[in-house]
Specification:
The protein is of the alpha/beta class and 226 residues long. 50% of the residues lie in helices and 15% in strands. It is built from 9 helices and 8 strands. Strand 4 and strand 5 form a beta hairpin. Bound molecules: 2'-deoxycytidine-5'-monophosphate (DC).
Length: 226
Amino acid sequence: MNKKFNIAIDGPAGAGKSTIARAVSARLGLIYVDTGAIYRSVGLYVCRKGVGSKDRDRIIAMLPEIEIRIVHDETGKQLMMLNGEDVSEAIRMPEISIYASDVSAIPEVRSFLLDLQRDFARKHGTVMDGRDIGTVVLPDAALKIFLTASAEIRAKRRYRELCEKGVDTTYEAVLEDMKYRDANDSGRSVAPLKAAEDAVMLDTSELTLEESIQAVFTLAEERMGE
Ligand code: DC
């Protein structure tokens, strides 16, 4: 296995990126990297400090206080370390989604996190998911996939996921959050959510999870054989 074989999977919230990327990485022996978790860690730090998610100047001034590390445990699960604390659970709270989306629109935040992502991919073969992996972080990735699904289907999937985790929320709130983040993530001026020109588009609205995983796996195998 080529250590530096990297697969970029981008797409909007709830398109199934993380579940698909995790399954494909396990089958291919690559490391799964969830880059949204990195933005969530910055969002959590800002939120805990009581600073508004749109307070650019204060957020930029805080960046030197933030040390983020991506660690994988023995089962391959990604843990996020924020100044030495494992925040993997805390960053999943719904209010942190909005914080993550807002802080991710700040160019200084994006450049602060760029090397962390690139260094990781340089050292390991990865399946990296996010919003700008194929366009900005890993423009030379061996395979780029842009996953989509309708907002309603994505909200339904995310709602189910949150319910299973015991998070108290409603479908309407999740759909609202999804639409807010879609507009925010696609509309920002720096590294907006968009497909790379050479990305393979995959709409998962009508596919089961297993079918989606198989589609990505097949594309990866084809690319590895080239
Ligand atoms: O993947 P996620 O929903 O956990 O990501 C949370 C937010 O982080 C998302 O709304 C936008 C931002 N993000 C980003 O701007 N670039 C990435 N590569 C990954 C996430």
